[in-house]
Amino acid sequence: MVAEQTTTGKADRRRVFFIRSMLDKERFPNYPDDALAHRGGYERLGSHISHITNSFELEKLLNKHKEIGTWIIDEASFYDERTAYVVKNESLRRGRSFYFPTLILNFRREIFNPSAKLLLEIATDIIPLTAYCEHQDCISNSFYTYRYYRIEEEECPALYFDPLIIVGGDVEKNDPLQPNYCTRCDHHHYLPGKEYTFLILKPLGEEAARGNLTPLMEELYNIKNNLKGSQLYQQLLETHENSRHGKIYMNALRVPRIAEKTLVYLMVEQNLLSEMQLREISKKLNLDRTYLTRTLHDNRRPVDLEEKELWD
Q: Based on the domain organization, do 106 and 168 belong to the same domain?
């Protein structure tokens, strides 16, 4: 009787399979392959867990395990947009159920990406979860993920154009290249650099897309070598100098690799820089090619800037 109500064709919704991103293998390298990792440790799921990188690999698993009726896809926003239609078709045609424990908003308080937008459109139920603000002086309700770096025990909020995806473990870090995350309310969610991004940085990228790299190169040179001479510094100073939390906002400029992060943003999210321009800027300004290569890979725009023969 129960089986009749929970089964459509071969798919039994009492059988559960857990999908995680391949990025988790990098975040938790010391865990068993069948581990469902979380902040408190992990649970072993045997053969009912797998790691994938895209919707095509998800399709293969769906076809391989036709008896599984319930699929939990963790961090579904990390996959390509095609994922939304793969799961929609499986649900309509084969009666399978899909659950997406994932972030809808990113640390910028915006829809995480196009994949998240499509998942919202196909979802039948959306359950937003709240938390309490993790600021030391606050316990208000929190809807937002906050990204910050800890440098010499000081909180340094991520700039608006910080790379959307940065792979790392779920432990507190004091590495200035590895962010920390927590939940914050409106009052304690600091997001410096948004005005700069649209007033200055994106127009510089658009000028570069038209073939004129000079203005962008000058700004990046100042960011790397003469920060107080950059438009970024001046914009943040004008906006936050006299604000209550001005020091915290200005702390964002203590985070390293800002010039590299602007390039990732302009190339990956705005599609304003070509690979050739990226290589030219990186070489002329002597930017951190290892950081750029890794971050571009994590954000699904692989470019190997460490290939020495390309620089000779």
A: no
The tokens 């936050």 sit on which residue?
240
Alpha-carbon span 126 to 123, nearest angstrom: 7
Whether 54 contacts 43, CB under 8 Å: no
- Residue 287 identity (one-letter amino acid): L
In angstroms, the CA 273 to CA 297 distance is 16
pLDDT digits (tens, 9 = 90+) for 28-68: 777 888 888 766 678 888 889 999 999 999 999 999 999 99
Query: pLDDT of 127-161, one tens digit each?
Result: 877 788 999 889 898 888 999 999 999 999 999 99
Which of the listed residues 87, 103, 122 is the one where a domain comes to its end? 122
Residues 116 and 148 placed together within one structural domain of the fold: no
Pairing relation of β-strands 180-184 and 41-44? unpaired
Query: Residue 99 has what pLDDT?
Result: 95
Tokens for 67, please give them: 């008896």
- Bridging pattern class, strands 68-73 and 11-21: parallel
Q: What is the CATH number of the domain that holds 101?
A: 3.40.50
The answer to pTM > 0.70 is yes
Residue range of the domain that includes 162: 131-184
What's the distance, Cα to Cα, between the start and end of the chain in Å? 71
Pair 163, 226 in one domain: no
Residue 189 in any domain: the answer is no
Instruction: Compute the distance between CA of residue 145 and CA of residue 127 in angstroms, rounded to an integer.
Output: 16
